[in-house]
TrEMBL record:
Keywords: Cell projection, Cytoplasm, Cytoskeleton. It comes from the Eukaryota. Cilium- and flagellum-specific protein that plays a role in axonemal structure organization and motility. May play a role in outer and inner dynein arm assembly. This is Cilia- and flagella-associated protein 300. It comes from Pediculus humanus subsp. corporis. The keyword Secreted does not apply. Belongs to the CFAP300 family. The keyword Cytoplasm applies. It is found in: Cytoplasm, Cytoskeleton, Cilium axoneme. PANTHER family: CILIA- AND FLAGELLA-ASSOCIATED PROTEIN 300. One of its GO terms (cellular component) is axoneme. Its main location: cytoplasm.
Length: 276
């Protein structure tokens, strides 16, 4: 049987609610990630089988048309297919179909969020180069936190948790939210933009049909060239495949090379607030 080779078309007219809703855009600006990450959609006409996912990704990132589109989206991250030595993929689970996944954060006994939705402050600390000034970031980043175990490794690997963490940590000049709702609302919108859901006719439950892969492109020098500095937690490249529609979403974030990873956000504002 002849081996499948995938061909791609860019769906430039695809509208992401994340990028077209003014309230969401305002939050992205506030969190210093507007223009720092890329969302784009491509379609393919060839039949897809689960065992083809590596072939699909290899074809995608070695396609001259695709690379030209990606380079147009963010010229400062330019690369050629000739630069590629190997494309590594890692399955990212995306099984969560309800925002109740985050209910454990909201429980008052965990002392992360007050009953009115306000995020509790904590003593300032730094983890992985990020300022921790509240209990939410502490739960996200500090493995010694009492609340870190609210989400075990399998939970933290879920795409929806990765999105949530990405929004909370933000970019270089990220301004913290006082309340939890904006983080949850934008997480929900972005997640819905990326995954395809269907109701199981037998169980009547909502199921995620998309397949998410974390991608690392290695150069001839055996270093990550896409994303650059792939070890940093805010540098990532996800491809979310929708087999039924023959589409894939490209979700990419890479901090600038000269970025100072110690993010000091609204520092004076935090120190002027009462730690509860």
């Amino acid at each position: 049987m002849e081996e499948v080779k995938y061909h791609f078309t860019h769906l430039s007219s695809k509208n992401f609610n994340t990028l077209n809703s003014k309230p969401v855009i305002d939050y992205l600006i506030k969190w210093s990630i507007k223009g720092q990450f890329q969302l784009s959609t491509f379609c393919f006409n060839e039949p897809y089988q689960p065992h083809d996912k590596q072939k699909l990704i290899d074809n995608f990132f070695r396609d001259s048309f695709v690379i030209n589109i990606l380079n147009e989206l963010k010229p400062s991250w330019f690369f050629h297919k000739e630069d590629i030595d190997h494309v590594y993929t890692e399955i990212v689970p995306c099984t969560i179909s309800s925002m109740t996944f985050f209910d454990r954060i909201l429980k008052e006994e965990n002392k992360i969020i007050r009953i009115d939705g306000v995020i509790r402050n904590c003593l300032d600390d730094y983890k992985n180069g990020f300022l921790i000034a509240d209990e939410l970031r502490k739960m996200i980043l500090d493995e010694e936190s009492d609340n870190y175990s609210l989400y075990l490794e399998n939970d933290r690997n879920e795409l929806i948790f990765r999105i949530f963490k990405f929004l909370i940590l933000g970019g270089q000049w990220c301004q913290f939210e006082d309340k939890i709702n904006p983080y949850l609302d934008v997480t929900k919108i972005l997640y819905k933009d990326l995954v395809h859901v269907e109701k199981n006719p037998e169980t009547k439950k909502i199921e995620i049909k998309s397949i998410c892969l974390k991608v690392t492109i290695m150069g001839k020098n055996k270093k990550s060239i896409f994303p650059i500095d792939g070890d940093h937690i805010q540098n990532f490249l996800y491809v979310i495949i929708d087999p039924k529609k023959g589409r894939l979403h490209y979700f990419y974030m890479n901090m600038e090379d000269n970025f100072n990873y110690i993010i000091i956000n609204d520092f004076q504002h935090r120190h002027n607030r009462l730690i509860m």
